[in-house]
Amino acid sequence: MPETKPYEQLSSTAGQIILEQLPERIKQAVMARAAEIDYPIEAVIEMAIAGYLDPNAIGFVDCKPDRKT
């Protein structure tokens, strides 16, 4: 079994490639969310996937804990 690095992250290039393949409304939502929380696109995509796979994973709510809602 291959070893995985504990802090592997989606590259910016890979994030853009994935973003371009998404339906337009999802692409717009991802870009809007990234702008709203001031995170890179690839981080938003990672959080969306992680949240789907593991409900206890870091999610959008966790991104800016000191942010006023």
Instruction: Please describe the biggest sheet, giving its number of strands, its sense, and whether it closes into a barrel.
Output: none
Count of discrete alpha- or pi-helical segments spanning 4 or more residues = 4
Overall geometry? globular
Quote the average pLDDT: 81
Which radius of gyration do the C-alpha atoms yield? 13 Å
Provide the structure class. mainly alpha
β-strand amount: under 5%
Order of helices and strands: HHHH
What's the β-strand tally? 0
**What proportion of the residues is helical, as a percent range?**
55-70%
Alpha-carbon distance between the two ends:
44 Å
As residue ranges, the low-confidence spans are 65-69
Description:
The protein has 69 residues and is an all-alpha fold. The chain has a domain at 12-59. The chain has 4 helices and no strands. Helix 1 packs across helix 3 and helix 2 (24-37) packs across helix 3 (41-53). Mean pLDDT is 81; it is low at 65-69.
Report a brief summary of the structure:
The protein has 69 residues and is mostly helical. It has helices spanning 12-21, 24-37, 41-53, 60-63.
What is the element layout, followed by pairings?
Layout: H1 12-21, H2 24-37, H3 41-53, H4 60-63
Tags for this entry?
0% strand; 59% helix; mainly alpha; 69 residues; disordered C terminus; globular
